[in-house]
Predict the structure.
Amino acid sequence: DAGRGIFVDSTLAAGGYSFEVDGAHTTTNTAKIDSAATSGTMLELTASGVLTGKGINFTADSAATGTGIFMTMDGLTTGKMIDLTSTGTIAGAGRVIDITADSATTGVGIQMSMDGLTSGKMVDLSSTGTITGKVIDITADSLTTGTGINMSVDALTTGAALHINS
């Protein structure tokens, strides 16, 4: 009642997993965590060493349809669905978010829908730092047909479709 339900202490320095589930399930879930928690953390992954690999490695290379990561928070009012934080100095090839889909030939890279939005912003990019580079950089050097930037605001009655203040 006052401790851990399961504790695994693995000291096998030669390798191997401390905990592994090999599920042969083809149409049902392999693992589930159901928590009645109202505060705290449901799942915590901590790397106490200098991690040079990946914090989480999710591989589903044979998946042709479906969703890789799915999350719902229907009761969310003031929190955040995703919060990425780094206090490190990200330089050179470092990225906070890096999306690569170099083999995609059609489709959409990033899609966002907020049909119920009545105030606020769909996208908010801000920095209080002294920027010597670019705030937004769009490069499509091989674009031969189409449109570089397309904006549609058909219902706009007051305001401006594009406002640049410098």
Notes: The two ends are 61 Å apart (CA to CA).
